[in-house]
Amino acid sequence: MKSLNRSPVTRHLLLIVFSLLMLYPVIWWIGASLKTTAEMSSPSIWPSKPIWENYTKGWQFSPEFTFGRFFGNTLMMEFWNVLGGVLTSAIVAYGFARLNFKFRGVFFSILLLTMMLPGQVTIVPQYILYNKLHLMDSYIPLILPHFFGGGAFFIFLLVQFIRGIPRELDEAAKIDGASVYSIFYRIVLPLIKPSLVTVAIFTFLWSWDDFFAQVLYLNSVSKFTVSLALRMYVDQFEIQWGRLLAMSLLSVVPSTILFFIAQKHFVEGIATTGLKG
């Protein structure tokens, strides 16, 4: 009996220990953001004297721009990316999961095959296309792809979820006179809300961290995103470690807040996708 009573306590202690180990990099990150450059090599986690100026001077990026400008640019881009990714991937997935049309299986197989293509394979023709359309140094090359299905992975994710919804609901709605569009809007969309939240979170995180595409298409400092602005703290002569770590710590705040707000639906969407049928 004693061992059974101690078992939950032991499990909780182990979870606390492992949680602290997982949180150690974050704790070190916070401490390092308050250090001077000379203290970065110090083994201590917390600085001897916190340098809060790393945050104030890091935020005042230059006389022309504050770091808030780059946050605003990135959040604006993320709004359109998430909107386009969620909306168009849901529409395409609904078509594959519910509508019968010629060569549906072939097109779906081709869609899945595109998941095997590395991004580097398609980036060159995309760059040439946007360059010929005079869309360089704008957000359009970063936003437009999200309005064409949102990506094969998201379509596949939603197809699996929609296939788990009983077709009897569609048939009952058709008897009541509902159209294909009405069934999608009134029945399917509310039922796939957890998977839509999953798509939204993944779209936000992946495009927020997509440094390669952003550095490829954006040239003007006034249009820089958070990822590009962080790179400006590094030059060939000096790395401003304190300001870099301070601003990079602030850069993860939006994605962290988003995850904690939507984590219930996110976990539900991941756990149930592909398990229904």
Secondary structure elements and pairings:
Elements: H1 2-32, H2 53-59, H3 67-98, H4 104-114, H5 119-132, H6 140-143, H7 152-163, H8 167-175, H9 180-191, H10 193-208, H11 211-217, H12 226-231, H13 241-251, H14 253-272
Helix pairs in contact: 2-13, 3-7, 3-10, 10-14
Domain ABC transmembrane type-1: 71-262
InterPro entries: MetI-like, MetI-like_sf
Membrane topology: Multi-pass membrane protein
Give an account of the 3D structure.
The chain is mostly helical and 277 residues long. It is 69% helix and 0% strand. Helix 3 (67-98) packs across helix 7. The radius of gyration is 24 Å and the shape is globular. The model is unreliable at 1-5 (pLDDT under 50).
Which structural traits does this protein have?
single chain, 277 residues, disordered N terminus, Carbohydrate ABC transporter permease, membrane, cell membrane
